[in-house]
Fold this protein.
Amino acid sequence: MSLEKITCITGQAIHVPGDDIDTDRIIPARFMKCVTFDGLGEYLFYDVRHDGEGNRTDHALNDPQFSNASIMLSGMNFGCGSSREHAPQSLYRAGFRAIIAGNFAEIFFGNSINLGMPCVTVNEPDRMKLAEMIENDPQHEVKIDLINNLILIGDASYAFEIREGARESLINGKWDPIDELLGNGSKIENVASLLSYS
Amino acid sequence: MEKLNLFQKVWRNHTVGTLENGQTQLFVGRHLIHEVTSPQAFGMLKEKGLPVRYPERTFATVDHIVPTDEISEPYSDPLADAMIKELRRNCEETGITFFDVSSGMQGIVHVVGPEQGLTQPGMTIACGDSHTSTHGAFGAIAFGVGTSQVRDLLATQTLALSPLKVRRIEVNGSLPPGVYAKDVILHIIRKLGVNGGTGFAYEYAGEVFDNFSMEERMTACNMSIEGGARVGYVNPDAKTFEYLHGRPYCPKGSDWDTAINTWESLASDVGCDYDDVVFLNASEISPTVTWGINPAQAISVEENIPDPSQLFGSEASSATEALEYMKLQAGSPVKGTPIDVAFIGSCTNGRLSDLEEVATRLNGRKVREGVKAIVVPGSQIVSQLAEQKGLDSIFKSAGFEWRRAGCSMCLAMNPDKLLGDQLCASSSNRNFKGRQGSPTGRTMLMSPLMVAAAAISGEIADSREIFPS
């Protein structure tokens, strides 16, 4: 099965400020009582988007100006905590196609790449400038160019970093590794047979 | 001969090859699954028409959603009931061994694996759960994965991964009385930061880890991910082998002797290279509690709650956000903070030695009126052994509720939840906002004995004062 080559993500961006935004914040555990990922988009950041009575708060994700956002900008250590793929799945199913942050927790990063959702790292001064531009003009189109490792917004451009292997997987349409893993059946058997345990 | 650390040796032994994007295809010898992160993976497998490649290498149990009071099915929560039935069906259809509630061997997956001897030195172990690092206590390379990777494991028993760097963390000297493995790992996270371990495997070493029991090593390795490290491990030694000897899934007879030789050879070589080495002094560690909304926001029970105005940059803004959420006063002693709930359990601190340590120190003390205190054993076997020793009666007569095995209030996917902004003294691993089931619920992490001290006092207390030795 050939996958989409993800070379450029273009769309509206939203700023969700804060460091150490954990996977429980992205999707509270009580919404993981499910046997499919369908519908998880609805519960994205549920507990900060709603007050105790279930009314919507003034969180950016509730702001109609950002309702078409497909790129999220956040702080350091985004996606820390649990390994739940429900977190990137809920972002993806809510329409997000890329995340920009100070850096990412290891497992969240891998889970996101496996969904074809790039996670790119930008330094703090540039994140602050990006946030300001997005907040001042929510209609700004943001472009994440994975060929040149640049974020383009208006006339400005900002460099980002992403692990090279992950970038290659995305731009070559190999972000879901299953077919390549399956293709090495005899090598897998060989390693299994050499192990000291079964 | 080239000198290697354990991570490098185990990685090498399990490498299938290099993938086009430069990642390693790594064979995973043991795969553990549970009801929350596996059903979608089985679904993806069916969609692709793929079989489970090595069903004998995957083991299942049910832990996150099981009620701890009434365990008969159907569960009162239809969603939870659907999840256990789905796991049971998937295991039956694919021939995967399932430690079901009726087996007497069910429990939290990271308690069950070691208990059954499924966790052994030199293995690669993966599970759709970030606390899989627990199994590193045995000198295994164990880590959490997402659900698409659970699919990859079911289909191929391999993963696409990038190797980690290795940081050796040596804790030397002797721990002061009343200081436990939980305090050591909270101290490490506090010192190295909540994301200090990103990209690293942590190799824990030094006198403190040498002297630790296997269960103490598990407590420390369990929380590696709270410091950002996906993997944490301790080199295998005589204690490791002693713990494993005779367990159901361990080698027997002459195979046992062969296994020990292999396992010993996998320990990090003396003089091998590390990407980083950190030394910590055991004597500086005190009974520790968290005051904030991530596990690095921790202080000694003798300290005052930090004042954001005396911190800098993002640390200050994080502290402000944390104190607002926690409704705590900057600069006040953390001791004396009133609590509503006390929780002893979880994959961090729900093992027999945790329960024994508390029960033997309770000494007739009672849970303070108005505090809800629950003890949730990590597995049915822990529960059974504790009951044989009469620990359940000690807890009950002290005013604790004695529950059935499961994850329970660590992440509150079952009926055990905080209500409103209740504050919980908890032996679990995460103090994130809303972690324990209420969007405004508050969690303070600490050792099981500190939880007991808080339960008895009705407020955060120094266990060394409440339980003088």
In short: The two ends of chain A are 32 Å apart (CA to CA). Chain A has one domain: 8-194. Residues 37 and 89 of chain A are 7 Å apart (CA to CA). Chain A has eight helices and seven strands.
